[in-house]
Write a structure and sequence with these properties.
64% helix, 4-stranded antiparallel sheet, elongated, 19 helices, ABC transporter transmembrane region fold, 10% strand, 2 domains, 6-stranded mixed sheet, 10 strands, alpha/beta
Amino acid sequence: MFSTVMKVWEMLKPFHKAFKLFVVIMVIYEGLQILETYTLGAVLNLHSQNVSWQTWLGFLAIMLIYDELFMRLDNKIDERIIRIHTDQTYQYLKNSAMKKFFELTLGWHQEKNSAVLVEKVNRGVDKVHELITTMSWEFIPGLIQLCLTIIPLLFISPWLALVLLVALGIFMTITFKGYETLKPLRESRHDMQEEEAKLFVANVRAIQTVRFSGQEDGFVGGFENIHNDIIKSASKEVKIVIYKVFRNRIRVLTLTRRLIMVILVTQLLSGGINIALLVYANTLAEKLITSFWRFARVFDQASKASESANRLYELLNEKPDMEDNGYITATDKPLDIEFDSVSFGYESNLIVEKLSFKIPQGLFVAIVGPSGAGKSTVFSLLLRDRDIQNGIICIGGYPLQDWNLKSFRDQVAVVPQQVDIFDTTVWENLVLLNPDLTQQEVEEACKKAYIHDRIMEFPAGYQTKVGEDGQRLSGGERQRLAIARALLKKSAKIFLFDEPTSALDSESESKVEEAMKSIQGKTRIVIAHRLATVKHADLILVLDKGQVVEQGTHSELLSKNGLYASLASRQNLE
């Protein structure tokens, strides 16, 4: 539990000053509450002294002023907890997780399940949020109350203070042992909950396949089975908590109250204390016992949150596969691209090996080859989503590692094979990279991408909502929308297209080709299986087994009767 709290403390570093100030405020607050517990004792003392009605009136006035000031302090504490300790920390953790996702490489994301990542963040942030709230409302006030309460009790009745401290030790020992018993159950249930989230998202995404195949019952049954396992685990935990942890805690507190009664009555009968002190000491003891439950609730909350908080902590402390220490942000030189003896792979499996080629700025270049030749890896290495293992990649005459990554990527526009379309309007998808674009700029880009006329046929034109993942758009419309979005990236000098026509019909393919041709004066690099898409390229690089085996124009490569000619023959391309 302590390690979980320390990890939460580390995650919330920007809030340390605010938390420390809160502790100071709570010392004052709890001190006033301890002072208030003596009110009844003061009334009894005043009564025994037969004071005048003016004294009683003055006492009442003091109490009313105290109540007003205390209420104002209480309101301020409430506002601070809600505004800073809950709302702002929740926002900070969510934003931190999103920033971390963008820091990590595509390779890292490809090894993870997106539903599990979302579940990990949501559950982790929610549990940390609950823990912060409980710490603010329960633990910090309870700890301060314990310290301030035990001091007067040591003077009134040392034996009473000793009994309470021993009871607290036994009470928390029961709590700690209960946590150790429950920890494996909670870890197992957390794994099942992540699996449930993954299965839920997968079922929703595959809803068309499931419905058309008539397998709804089977998929629902599979989901119910994993949820039943979660419920069984939770039920087992509840039984342990109620019949072992809670029951033993209550026994300790019941026995403690009886011992307190014996000690106070004994002191009263022996003349060690009077009625006023007995009432005051008993009130303090009850406050202290209430703090026991506060500590228990905090510990229970921390133990429940521990697995989620630990996984969130691990995520936020994930280190990127590579470091961005580049210092070059711009250059007046042409942005020529050069791979010189570049090698990259996983463990002993090299995907590209001693790969070398040069692309002068402004050319239309195609990269072709059989599946597994390393074409997509070239894009990944060029965008520096992964670091090469040998050789060097130069951009504008400078090693890629010397470029500031953000500055370099600002000069690159990418149209991936699987286009990311957001569940919003056509317009918002287009201006995603630059919200300040004008209507004229957007329409001009869409005309170049051969998508403007089609957009105007939509019910609401550019304000038409495209649905989740752009499901209301055809494959060709998605690709042309992505090209228009790339054209709107004004800083782009290099355009990368990854299989832009692989899943399109001939009409859509033709329009996408025309859209790519509209980009003039800038470097265009296209990965293609359909060679017809790139037959007019200035340079075609033919890759096989991670190396350039041929290069030239379409006609030059056909005349060589090599791998490219063989690929063209299979596609009936002359």
